[in-house]
């Protein structure tokens, strides 16, 4: 499973990637928007948006790309490691139960 994380804390980027790796997922993390942000998103299985730490412009860009590519979006209010852990645990359990 591939995941794109938008927003969050720059200092937590490595931890976000490590958490995703723990669940067998590959992750790309974008804490800031740079010029080719839309091109770099690719076609992930899930787009995670940390809403408290993402700019409105970046949220709109990510949402438009996800809609265009039919990628599900998970909005998390906080950019904490435990919030990401809980989300991935739910997604893995959902996948394993056939849902």
CATH H-level superfamily = Probable inorganic polyphosphate/atp-NAD kinase, domain 1
What oligomerization state is this entry in?
A: single chain
Structural class: alpha/beta
The fraction of residues in strands falls at: 15-25%
Uncertain segments are none
What is the overall shape? globular
Q: What is the chain-wise order of helices and strands? A: EHEHEHEH
**How would a crystallographer describe the biggest sheet?**
4 strands, parallel
Number of strands: 4
Could you characterize the architecture of this molecule?
This protein is an alpha/beta fold and 99 residues long. The chain has one domain (2-96): Rossmann fold (3-Layer(aba) Sandwich). 45% of the residues lie in helices and 19% in strands. The chain has a four-stranded parallel beta sheet with strand order 2-1-3-4, sandwiched between helices. The chain is globular. It starts with a strand and ends with a helix.
Question: What attributes characterize this protein structure?
Answer:
99 residues; alpha/beta; Rossmann fold; globular
Task: Summarize the SSE layout with pairings.
Blueprint: E1 2-6, H1 13-22, E2 26-30, H2 37-41, E3 46-50, H3 56-69, E4 73-76, H4 81-96
Parallel strand pairs: 1-2, 1-3, 3-4
Helix pairs in contact: 1-4
Question: TL;DR of this structure?
Answer:
The protein has 99 residues and is of the alpha/beta class.
